[in-house]
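U., I forgot to send this yesterday:
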Amino acid sequence: MPSSSPFHGLLAFPITPADDHGRVDTDTLSHLLERLCEAGVDSIGLLGSTGVYAYLSREERRRAVEAAVECVDGRVPLMVGVGALRTDHAQELARDATRAGADALLMAPVSYTPLTQEEAYEHYLAVSATTPLRFCIYNNPGTTHFTFSVELIERLSRIETIQAIKMPLPSDGDYSGELRRLREASDLAIGYSGDWGTADAFLAGADAFYSVLAGTLPRPVQELARAAQAGNVEEARRFDAALAHLWDMFKAYGSLRVMYALLDLMGLSSAKPPLPVRGLGSDARRQVADALEPFWN
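Result:
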């Protein structure tokens, strides 16, 4: 197992390429992961939202993890998403990832019927009990429609293997205030997602950033992250400004659709998003190509 923490620094989340029937293209996935290892990202997040975990069967998720573990081969910590509607299904996914050789697990409180705070607590307690691997709480209210209270975060942090939380960007932009409140409540490693917040989160002292773009374009995001982690405000703002056009594409079209377009434009994969999600139209693709040009040509 890699010695570094899977919950600190820049975590890169790649697409999981699959065909129209949801069968994972493990060769292309391995190529994408090899690029991330060569770029030296701090950790890889497999089967996150960008990795379309919710659209894949248990068998295909297991195949993806097995291929990823073989490819990464201990060079970079590998965190695997195990979110599922049912607790027993999430437990099965956690066991699969553990047996395959993952280093850590990421889990969102996926639901159809809205969960109570107590139900979410019991869900994490039950799934974490099935494996010795370290856990990261995935707080993603935009997709799960569930919001973690500070009290629930504090309770979950008392579970020994739950060691990190992935937060959405604070709606009021007060990273420092939110980090202070969360650190008063727990000793979890605190990271954020929502790529346009990379500079602000690291400059405020976040432990990690969970990056969609780094899953395909790791080097420019690394430059931004390293500058911000070092407290170099001027450099961080310069790198952030250079990426602003891509951030605009994320906000306009959704990061998932943009990432599939980037993979195609870069010649890395012709995989399409899982239906009913559709790829971008020609006008939007041209905009994405323009935003990509400074980093690819």
